């Protein structure tokens, strides 16, 4: 044991709430239960891989899980169990479910021992069964991901190096706007610059630590970009609405049918892109993982048009639907028939109104 580790043991002993007897399973369980990262640093061996990654990376990810737990819990209760998957090579291997003492949230680990009782390996289990019924599966399970390029046996290919570099470049571009405003033109430029790269990615690329967040980030920001693109069409719809006589229902129906295609495009605007807080502050967070914002005025036509649709579209659709209450309740979004049967135009045509 290094002098630094010995010094840390003395410091922990002075705290009076941690006792480390040996680098064994019981000490490991106690340290995780107390969410004590410093104790885990001493218990786990330095040159051993855990969940196929280094000790440093494993503890870093576990510490992030602890931070999440500590928003509600001050202790994790350990319950013994085993892997319950019929398809997993770890079937029936023993482990521990750690359950938050207040939230009931949990994380599962299989723990393997060496012959001397020290910890050989520890890794998550996605299909874990405790010996007693202690886990509410309706409550969130906390997890972390070890990406392929974080594993100790990872060997980077030329394709990976290129893709990883592009992902880092894309993220770094956005990070330069930390706590500041990004303009419409800058959003458009970023999307156009990385659009081809995003479209070239395959599902297996999402198992890399920088490519995966880029993929999620681009998907969301591209949604912002698509709303920017239809701003001019939304402006035309709003301008035409000014000439609609609100006392004449047929005029309202004709306007709704004419711009119904925009209604479908705007469905995901609020709250996916524009939140209630954004409407109050006038600032929209570009993406949840960045402290970067743009002004609501960039999407103001889309925001205003969606408000009109919210006010008139559902009211008229409910009034003129040709479906029974049961048929409406049994509709499932994205079914083959859903877009047609959820269309105001469809029901008005059946009724012979338009």
Commentary on this structure:
The protein has 354 residues and is of the alpha+beta class. It folds into two domains: 3-150, no CATH class; 161-351, no CATH class. Helices cover 48% and strands 11% of the residues. Strands 4-3-2-1-5 form a five-stranded antiparallel beta sheet. It has a two-stranded antiparallel ribbon with strand order 6-7. Strand 6 (283-285) and strand 7 form a beta hairpin. Helix 2 (25-33) packs antiparallel against helix 3, helix 6 (184-200) packs across helix 7 (211-229) and helix 8 (231-241) packs across helix 12. It is elongated, with a radius of gyration of 27 Å. Residues 17-21 have low confidence and may be disordered.
What key phrases describe this protein's structure?
single chain, alpha+beta
Provide a concise account of the structure shown.
This protein has 354 residues and is α+β, with helices and mostly antiparallel strands. It is built from 15 helices and seven strands.
The biggest beta sheet is recorded as:
5 strands, antiparallel
If you average the pLDDT, what whole number results? 91
Provide the helix percentage. 40-55%
Q: What number of domains?
A: 2
Distinct helical segment count: 15
Q: Beta fraction of the residues?
A: 5-15%
Number of strands: 7
Structural class: alpha+beta
Radius of gyration: 27 Å
Kindly report how far apart the N and C termini lie.
Answer: 83 Å
Instruction: Please state the overall shape, judged from the principal axes of the Cα atoms.
Output: elongated
Order of strands in the sheet with most strands: 4-3-2-1-5
pLDDT under 50 segments (min length 5)? Answer: 17-21
Order of SSEs: HHHHEEEEEHHHHHHHEEHHHH
């Amino acid at each position: 044991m290094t002098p630094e580790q010995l010094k840390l043991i003395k410091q922990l002993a002075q705290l009076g709430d941690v006792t480390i007897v040996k680098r064994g399973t019981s000490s490991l369980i106690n340290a995780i239960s107390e969410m004590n990262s410093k104790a885990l640093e001493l218990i786990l061996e330095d040159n051993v891989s855990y969940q196929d990654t280094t000790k440093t990376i494993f503890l870093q990810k576990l510490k992030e899980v602890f931070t999440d737990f500590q928003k509600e819990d001050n202790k994790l209760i350990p319950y013994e169990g085993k892997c319950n998957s019929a398809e997993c090579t770890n079937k029936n291997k023993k482990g521990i479910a750690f359950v938050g003492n207040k939230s009931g949230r949990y994380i599962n680990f299989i723990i393997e021992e060496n012959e001397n009782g020290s910890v050989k390996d520890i890794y998550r289990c996605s299909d874990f069964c405790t010996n007693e019924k202690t886990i509410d599966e309706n409550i969130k399970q906390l997890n972390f991901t070890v990406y392929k390029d974080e594993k100790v046996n990872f060997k980077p290919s030329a394709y990976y190096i290129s893709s990883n570099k592009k992902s880092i470049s894309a993220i770094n571009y956005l990070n330069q706007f930390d706590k500041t405003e990004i303009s419409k033109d800058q959003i458009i430029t970023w999307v156009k610059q990385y659009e081809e790269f995003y479209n070239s990615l395959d599902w297996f690329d999402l198992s890399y630590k920088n490519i995966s967040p880029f993929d999620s980030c681009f998907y969301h920001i591209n949604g912002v970009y698509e709303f920017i693109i239809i701003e001019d069409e939304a402006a035309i719809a709003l301008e035409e609405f000014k000439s609609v006589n609100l006392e004449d229902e047929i005029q309202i129906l004709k306007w709704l049918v004419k711009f119904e295609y925009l209604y479908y495009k705007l469905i995901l605007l609020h709250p996916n892109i524009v939140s209630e807080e954004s409407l109050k502050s006038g600032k929209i967070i570009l993406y949840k993982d960045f402290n970067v914002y743009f002004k609501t005025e960039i999407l103001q036509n889309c925001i205003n048009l969606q408000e009109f649709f919210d006010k008139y579209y559902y009211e008229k659709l409910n009034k003129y639907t040709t479906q029974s209450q049961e048929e409406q309740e049994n509709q499932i979004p994205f079914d083959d028939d859903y877009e047609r049967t959820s269309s105001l135009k469809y029901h008005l045509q059946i009724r012979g109104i338009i």
